[in-house]
Amino acid sequence: MKFITRFYLSLLLALLGLAAQASNDLIWAQPMGAEGNDSSARRALLIGINKYKGLPRLQGSINDIETMRHILITRWGFSEKDITMVTDEAATRAGILAALEQLVQETGSQDTVYLHYSGHGSQVQDLNGDEKDDGLDETIVPQDGRTGDVRDITDDELDEIISRLRARSALVVLDSCHSGTATRSVDIRTRSVPRDTRIDLYRKGMVLKRAVVPLISSRFVLMTGAASHQEALDGPVEGRYHGFFTYALSRSLSSAGPDASPREVFDGVERELKRIQTQFGRSSMPEPQLEAPPGLLDTPLLIASREGSPSSASPQPTRLPWIEVQPKEADRVVLVNGLLLGAGPGSTWSIYQPGDTTFTPGRALAVATVTQLQGKDALARLTSTGTKIPSGARAVSLLPPPAPARVSIRIADLPRERRQFIEETLRKHVKDVDIVEGSQQARFLVDVQGNSLRLFSAEGLQPVGSYALDNERWGAGLALVVSRSANASELLALDNPSSQLKVKVRVATTKPPVTARGVAVVADTQPAHYRIRRQGESRTSENSLQLEIRTSADAYLTVVDVDSQGGVNLLFPTQHQRSDYYPEGRVRSGKAVLLPDSLQPANRAGFHWDYTPPQGTDTIRVFTSTDLETAQMIRQRVRALQESAAQARGGVTTRAAVTASVGSLRQDLAQVATRGFVQVHDPTPAVPTTPVADSGPVASAPPPNPPSPPAPSGADPAMPAGGPAPGAPLSVTPAEPPLAKQVAPDWAATSVTIVVEG
To answer: Where exactly are the structural domains of the chain?
Structure first.
């Protein structure tokens, strides 16, 4: 956004000449040079506004900064006394400016600063000629903004204040926007308000002082929620309202390694936004922005202080953010302030010993599932009895809450008789439906245009289906789509926030975003577009899917497609692949894997993924696991979901059938947290023995083949099912050696969104 390219880069360019030494303290940018005293602090100023005096309310801004505060303390070792929060009534124009001035006064030359704003943003006419692109200054809107003679806080004002900050390094996070488009979903709100036209107010308070220094000297990292032409969104995520960007950033910072770079953390933001996109059924998401000098994009963003350093009195950084656990009854515990990390009903948590900082997979004391909330505390039931949980134990997120048990549908404004007819038909055909009103969250929206009933995804912008009301079977057709989509959401909700395994997936035919001068990075949150392949049409990158997948450890891949109408298909492994093409789905750490390897006939894979109807938005969900057993569990449940849909009357799968397949998979995946191995030292002298070859993991009996080839995947029509025609050229992928032995099983998942057009 232009707010980035002009204001914030110049805002922190004012740090020219500030010395930085390569010390042991937590920093936001790689320090260069060495000097100065040993005293340092990590300071955070967190500003969040929900309740505006004269503007539409937001619902997630306070939650944003409460969650970020908890992560800064428990994950990254910030001290509570060095974090200032300014919220709602305190976040007036005077209150925000006073907090910024206090930050300037308290910050020393060796300090690190984290500045976060969640709230409305806007624009005002530029008065000093520094906005060459569109003639507009960007602003943040204080709680009393647009009332009386209260002005927004302009980028020029912030420039002047931050230019006096004597920090070694700083990070600014901005979750607001300055322009946006409308959404029909009342649960998702944009964080922008119209341009302020009260120009005379700004002339009176015009900032004449400017801080202009060379970009090369900046040690600044900036992340923002959307481009200038897009909306930053505020909505319910896993039972609690948040800014979508801040929530994604909090999840990425939670799981990032100690040496993660800005680019790697930003990649995590992109993955999380795609997961939220899947949850809400959105066809696209805003594109967050990352800006920094080229030399900082790939250097460590956060470096934890080492024991004995001047700042080591701060809390010890941990691998993951955690929640304090207090035992309550024999099989119950309390997750103190669990709501701050998303401990909604149905979420699953791994419990570790007090003081644990590594949270090693497979070494948890127990697993607990949240049953209810009491304020911000979460009550949870242990999945197994007999384990004594000590006071002060630590819990980390293992599985998010499952998809809602019932399907919520909102009906647009219609005449009473027609609305009543539609409600009765929906209740007759969709057994688990709730017709919701007002601000309640809906999974689908329904309206009527002429004689057609239209079904929309949650955002109200992407149509899922259209049905003629004069056809008596319209109710059954709509029920099929609603049921399948709701059931598929159970599968898409599976995620492992505590995983050490990282997976990156992109459509192989798309090009990574090109950045200007190596400074700006834009998240790739827009869907890839494909069209249906017609009979006899040549296979191209426009009608046949190819994925590039890379994992951070040796792993087994499982690729699942969920189409726009909720159809679930296991794409990989497939019965059509050649036996020597990634057997069992095994891939190597860091290796870029193309699935399939080529779009040409007689490829090494033995299959292609051609797109067929229906049109709409597909979600490709990629699961990875470090052990074969977990991979086979996932594949078997996906096949069970396919079979239950095929066998159910009219194709409508009951929620009980879904619970039997995906629900049991959740339970099995939760047990992975305690299914580890403990390394025990053996002091006995070694006795020479005959070497034994490593035969690798032992595969269980191969799972049954699906009843029919999955769509959109399938064998090449010009190729026999068993492979290419005799004499056709064939390149063979060498057989993969066994995967390295793992201390404990681990798994992860991510998604890619595809728009399929006719």
So the answer is: 2-16+46-296, 323-399, 408-472, 503-514+527-674+705-757
Query: How many helices and strands, by DSSP H and E, does the chain display?
Result: 13, 36
**At residue 260, what is the residue type?**
A
Q: Beta 289-291 vs 323-329: how paired, if at all?
A: unpaired
Which structure tokens are listed for 576?
Answer: 């059509």
| CATH fold match for the domains 2-16+46-296 and 323-399 | no
How many Cβ atoms are within 10 Å of 245's Cβ, its own excluded?
A: 32
Neighbour tally for 532: CB within 10 Å: 16
CA distances from 141 to 120, 246, 666 (A): 6, 18, 43
The predicted model gives 691-704 an average pLDDT of: 35
Residues 2-16+46-296, CATH architecture: 3-Layer(aba) Sandwich (3.40)
SS3 state at 483 = helix
pLDDT in tens, 470-517: 887 888 888 877 777 776 777 878 899 999 999 999 998 755 554 443
Torsion of CA 641, 646, 650, 656, to 10 degrees: -30
- Kindly write down the DSSP assignment for every residue of 181-219, as one continuous string: ---S-TT-EESB-PPB--HHHHHHT---------GGG--
CA–CA separation, 196 and 23 (whole Å): 45
Q: Concatenate the DSSP letters of all residues of 523-587 into one string.
A: ---SPEEEEPPPTTPPP-TTTEE-EEEEESSSEEEEEEEE-TT--EEEEES-TTS-TTSSGGGEE
CATH for 323-399?
2.40.10
Strand pairing class (520-522; 332-335): unpaired
